[in-house]
Structure formats: structure tokens, C-alpha cells
Amino acid sequence: MSNDEHETAPTPETSDRRITLGELTSCTDGKLVVAECMDTQVPRHIEDVANGLKCKCICPGCRRRMVAHQGERRRHFQHAADGPDCSTAGESALHRFAKDVLAKTLRLRLPELKAHHGDESLPVVAEQEFIFDSAVLEQRTGDIIPDVVCHKGGRSLHVEFKVTHACGPEKIDKLRAMDIGAIEIDLSGYRDVPLDDLDQAILAEAPRAWLHNPRQAGVKARLKENERTKLASEDRRVETLLNGLKTIPQKQIGEFEQLAVSAGLADLLAADNESVGFLVNGREWRAFVLMHFAIRGTEFLHQSVFEGMKARRWIADGFAYVSKADAAAMQRVADRAILPPWQSLWEFLSRLETSGFLNGTSERGGYVAGGKLRRRTDVWRRELEKPQRRTDELRTLFDGIVARIRTASLKDGLTFEEWFGTDVGHGIVPSETIGNDDAFLDISSRLAALLQGMSGFPARADEPLGFPVIKDLEIRREARREVEARREVERATRARNDADERENRLRAAASGEMAADAVWAWMEKPQARLNDLCPAEAARKSDSSYQGALYALERWAANQSREVEAANRRLDLIEKLRREARAAFRNSEHAELWVRSSTPKLGGKRPEDHCVDEATFKECSAILTDIMRRRRW
Ligand SMILES: [Zn+2]
Fold first, then answer.
1. In 10 A of CB 492, how many CB atoms?
2. Global pTM?
3. Ligand 1 center–CA 58 separation, angstroms
4. Which of 124, 308, 426, 431 has its CA 20 to 30 A from that of 251?
5. Residue 257 — very low, low, confident or very high, per pLDDT cuts 50/70/90?
């Protein structure tokens, strides 16, 4: 085509306007901003052509003549004549453009392709640069838009483009049905890029993926074959394992099952799935999970339970670790749902968790008793905790009693553990009472009594119950006796000193009243008034009897002066009598003789003896008067 043919165009061919990918592919109701020059097949912008039919453009889709509208409001190409709807013009224009780019360079970057089956994958195509012989537009059956197809030898590769929409499933199905290799290049990120700059995006840079590759099926088949081989070998291995299993007697009831039944958990022991690989019946290991781990109320791990089972030799050889694949192989071989130990346990724990008997606690398979399980086993758990609680109670009593033993040396080597296991009297062994309500009550009340006895004053121990309390109390009594004896000696010394002092005081007082030899005699002579004690003894005896002795001394002194007075008075009276006798007899010798001679008138007594007071003086004096009267006569 020569430039002459474009003379009528108002704008030169060499316009600065650069058509972008977005403009090329924009198409609204068959109204385009870019059409194709009917002579050069070059995309032309609406602003770069002559108005009306003079634009000399055709629709890139249906290839009908276009008319350029360059009015104030409408500035776009439109099909010149009415015809069928044309919505693929943009896409056709892009394919046309891309074909030209590919035909020019004859090379294209291909993405990597891998075939997948299950967890396995194999490469189908490595990422590479594809060098081909030609790039053409080919019409597919029933398709208006021609595909861009690269040919190399007998092979061909379809290239699809994504600008606004990805390749639809129908088209991919078609490509697959025809078993044609196809890739899709994603140009959605290049809409604002001018067509002139799009080459590298198409050839290498833009993201791309395989829609179909004829070799893919073969690789996939190989993967499937590999899997079949693998499965077959797994099946053989697993079959050997399963055949080696011994049958477990299901009737036998184990210790944990018994516990679980008595704890009211029998209904939880049934299984949903058949387990395989255990050397213990299913009810027993499930009971083990419940009674050994779950009802304790502390967190436990799936792993720990499994280790517990292994330690009990409950897992058959070869079943301690069964991979997912082997577990699946077991189901294939057995042709029914069977679970190896690890998975069985998992299934059982999950079931308990789902039903609220367990709560999951951690990612790595931790569990703790759920509210439902706790409520149901409350009574049982208390029963289970009883031994520990009772042991603790006895330990507290033990500690209390030991604390009240004062002799430190007696406590050497006295430990709860040893005491707990020995006969503490009456054939009672504390540890043996733990499981028996009556026996426990008996020993604990005996201990409480001992504790109380040892806490009282004075401390008392009715029965020692294995404690060195009797010896302790003996040592304490002995110590007390020594103290008392010492006090007694002190008291006696003090009493003796007091007695000496009182005796001395009394002796001093007596010395003031009488002559020294009389004091001695008085002090040592028992007196009826002093309860037949002598004053010395009375003074020693006590303060009050000392007072009595002092009083006796005073009385003695008083009495002593009265006797002296009486004697003096008697001597005076006798002297007076002598004078009267001398007056009566007028002869002193006769008078004296009378005074000293006994007379019948005084009952044979002598006057000097008879005259002791006024009365007896008058009797004697009356006799003298008589004698004088007779003399006068
Ligand atoms: Zn058209």
C-alpha cells in the first residue's frame, strides 16, 4: 500500500498517538475506539482517521466496513451496515496483533507444568523458551475468533490471552477434547501499555500458565501407576501385619474395665470403629484412657496415653507406628473400616471430646476431663482420692503428736513412712486402715485422743500407738520429781532455820524471866497447855505454837510473882502470929514453942504451917485469944 491512498486522511499516518492494549480491546456494543485499516491491517485510532466511511477501516472481528463518527458527543467506529451483533472485535484485534508479534520473533517463554496425583507430582514441561517455525491465526470449529497458533514441525501450540476475562471452561474443554497444547498469557496488568511496548510482555514477561498439554495425561497415568504399585506393596506389607495378629479374648474383663464399670462409665467403652493391632480388648484400653487419665482431672496428652499403652505391651509388633497410608491400606486389605491403635485412640478421644466428656486443651492433642465426665465421676473420684486424703489426715495427726514429744532424742529416726507401716499396738497397722472406713475411724480417733492427751496439762498418754510417749512422759515426770525434791530440801532448810530462830527467841524471853538453869528446865518440860509438848518443841513446831509457848512463859512469870507475894504475906502473918503469941504467953520461948508445936485444935497441924492467909491467921489468932482468956480466969 502506498501513502497516496491515504491522502484524504486529515491526520498523517505518522501520528504521535499510541494505541494502548485497553483501547484495542475496548468494545462497547460494537462501538470501537480502534479499528483496522482495510489496506494495511494496522490498528487505527478513531482520532487518527478521516470521518465517516473515508476512514477506510474494517471491524477486526467480523471484518465488515466501519464508519468513523467524529462528532461532538460520539467519537467511535461503528459498523457501517446493520448486521449480526459483534462483541468479539476487541479480542480478535488483540489476536491479530499478538500473532504479528509472535510471527515476527518466533519464540515464546513457556511456563512450567506439573502433573499432580494425590500428594505426588511429576514435571510435564520445564519452564523453557519455545522456538517455533510460524505463528498464524486459525479459526476453530464454531468459533468466530481465530486462535493464535504456533507451529513447529507437526506440533502446534494455542496461545490464549487474558485481558479482562480468563479463558472460559468451555474453551478449555474444547482444547482438551482436541488434545491441543495451549497456554494462557495474562495481560490484565498491561492494559495501559501502548501496543508498541507489549512485545516483551507477550513473549516472556507476562504471567502465563498451561491450559492443556497433550503429555499431561501420560504423566498423570504414570503417577497413578506409581501409586498403584505403592499401594500394592503397602497392601502386601499390611496384610502380613494383619495376618500376624493374634485374636484377643473379648470376654475377659480387665482391671480398668472393672473400674470404669464401677464408676458408671460402661456406656463410654463401646466402640464406633473396629480397632486392630491391640493386644488387649477394646473395652479395657478405653477404660484405661478413662480411669488412668481422664477422670484424674489433670491435662493429659494423646501421646502420653499411647506411651502408657505401649508400656503395658498392649500394642502388637508393627502397630506402634502406622502411617496414614498404611492405615488406609489396612482398610483396603480388610475391606472394612478398621483403625490401627494410634488412630483408634485418636478417634476415641475425639468422640469423647465431641460428646463433652473431654475438653481439648492444646494443638498437640491435650485433653482434660469435661464437665460431663466430672459430674458423672464425682463420687467415684472422691472415693479414689480417699486414700491420699486419709493418709494426709494421719500424717497431720502424726506430726501433731511428734511435735508434743519434748525429749528430742526420742524423735530421732521417727518418720511417718516407717510408723505408717508398722504395728502400733492391738495389731493395728496405720497403712492397712486406709481402705477400711471403720478401722480408719478407729485409728484416727485413737490418735486424736493421744494428741489431746499430750496437749493437756499434765500430759497424758493412755496408749502410745507407736510413739515414744510413755518414755517421754517418764522422763518428764522424773525431771519434775527432781525439781520438787530440790524445792523440798529448800523448804525444810527454811523451816529448820525458822524453828531455830523461834526457839532462840523463846529462850531469850525465858532468860529475862528466870535464872539460867531454870530456863533450861522450863524449856524442856512438857506442859499440858502446850499439848504435852515442851516449850522448846512448841516454839519449833510452828508460829502459832511458838505464840502458845510465849504465852505460857508470860503466865509462868505472872504466877511466879503471885507465889512470892503469897509467901511474903504468909511470912508477915506468921510474924504477926508470933508477936500475938509472945503477947499471949508473955514468954518468947513459950510463944515460939506454940508456934512450932502441933495442936489438936488445928487438926494436929502446927500454927506456923497452918497460917497461910488471913483466914487461917484468924483461926490461929482465935486459939491464942482463947488461951489468954483461960489464963485470966
Ligand atoms: Zn464486527
1. 10
2. 0.46
3. 8
4. 308
5. very high
